[in-house]
Amino acid sequence: MLDPDIAAFAADQDATFDRAFPARPIKEQRALYEAFWRRYHAPRPAGVEASDFNVLGLSGHVPVRLYVSAKAASPAPVIVYCHGGSWMFGGLDSHDLPCARLAHYSDAAVLAVDYRLAPEHKYPAALQDAWDVLNWVAEQGQERNLDPRRVAVAGDSAGGALSAGMALMARESGGPALRAQGLIYPALRATRPATEAASPGLDEAAVSAALSAYLSSPKDAEDPFAMPLMARDFSRLPPAVICAAELDVILPDALEYAAALDMAGVPQRLIVAHGLPHTFLRALHFCGAADRAFVDFARAMAELLQG
After folding, report:
1. What kind and span of H or E run contains 132?
2. Three-class DSSP category at 226
3. Is the pTM of this model over 0.90?
């Protein structure tokens, strides 16, 4: 059952991201997405400062935003954060509120990545940008008072796929060493079993449209770095905190990933936010259930980074 605190939000999601949405020109889709998140924006928590700069990557400069809480240690543990938005939408401003709140509740610095967007930049562009930022943290983060020994990756939705992809890349590359991976309603495979469950604002057709925009070819759907549930081996990955939405068409991805990690002996904590739809991060400031799930997520990440 949909949480009553989020009912009006969910109805707005359904109206904005209707069945006609994926067929609109990308410029129009982005304008609707921009207007939607701005309707639910709110100020950052007190005591969190943010600064923008660029990180030089293989394909040029990657814009980033660093959030630091007044409570953070010095040097601060750091979470490299990838925003959601179907790989096509969003940026530093669209996810300013959840990133600032994550910094506030985790007492870690949060480094948000403004990766290149599809369809103009297909896979692996976004992952490469995020990976370049992660490696910058490991190699040069001390310049910004970040602790390269206490690094995590995190993200929501499409950003969850990027974060899990980076965790796999770090294992295969022998580093950077990660303390944790944090995934919020992640999209981790191209297809999943059909479900009759309500999923406000997102259906399988929308997921398919996003993947068509993001992936360079059908073969990419089998690439574990793009779709992490396609990995054959889940061992030796960093501990995970997975926060899923109950009323979400991609809920099975989170459940399957948690089970795969558990089977491989990787510590994982699964938080299922009951009564909430995909994109509930927009509702942290007016929905108690959303706020509680997010605080649990942030504090679990803090435990892994502080240990």
Report:
1. helix 125-140
2. coil
3. yes
